[in-house]
Amino acid sequence: MSPTQTSSATVTVNIVDERIGRLIFSNPTHRNALSAQLLTALDESLAALASQRIPVVILGSEVGQPVWSAGHDIRELQHDHDPIAYGKPLEKVLRRIRAYPGVVIAMISGSVWGGAVDLAMSCDLVVADRSASFSMTPANIGLPYTTSGLLRFFNNLPIHVLKEMFFCAQKLDAERAEHFGVVNRLVDSDALEATALELAHTIAGKAPLAIAAVKEQLRILEDLQPMPVQAMEQIAELRRQACESSDFDEGLAAFAERRPAVFGGR
């Protein structure tokens, strides 16, 4: 087991056997928030596992915590008003997971917030216990989500459930998440690790090249979403306006001060 230290955060790599790797991320003082350093460590760890040709990876924080991940480290948003843009640490990790030449299983215990929901949904399979919930909270602070990010939700959720998650920023509980297919296996907490490992061993016993080929085909098919240049430019302008708005500053201030935000739409 080898930890990668990132200030107060760590990413630990555990090779279960020659076919299965465990990636455990931890940022205990900030509810396992996805800081830029933590995301960089995750990206490096996934690249290392890919170079070792590990066909199955189980990704998650420690089981039994109330929060799987609080999403983006809100402290960093004071300096980076668009943390989900192309080339930013979270997007790099999401692309790494989607392009990983094997299966990545998210093992979830506790609540999942913001960008961490995108992290979980970018994995190939999700195993969760009944404490799991999923909350998309960008609207609470005035952050507009990216088209690529919305597409991942669009491919996994009915459109009205997607809109509810993004418009209301309320929790999708474990039972509803299972109902809508976000969660593959929903189990009690004491069975979570065993269930994830059983699924991993099942996949690891199959032909890895065939699975990698199917995964890449599905990734390409999901990405076949043609968009006119004019629409891309329009979206970029809408996102720019939101990221540079007074509402974004108000959302961050309200979060830091633990009070309701008062948005003015400008």
From TrEMBL:
Residues in a coiled coil are none
* Pfam families in the record: ECH_1 (PF00378)
Q: What Gene3D superfamilies does the record tag this protein with?
A: 2-enoyl-CoA Hydratase, Chain A, domain 1 (3.90.226.10), Lyase 2-enoyl-coa Hydratase, Chain A, domain 2 (1.10.12.10)
Q: List GO BP terms, alphabetically.
A: fatty acid beta-oxidation
Q: What's one GO MF term for it?
A: lyase activity
Record keywords: Lyase
- What family, per the record? Belongs to the enoyl-CoA hydratase/isomerase family.
What is the name listed in the Swiss-Prot or TrEMBL entry for this protein?
Answer: Methylmalonyl-CoA decarboxylase
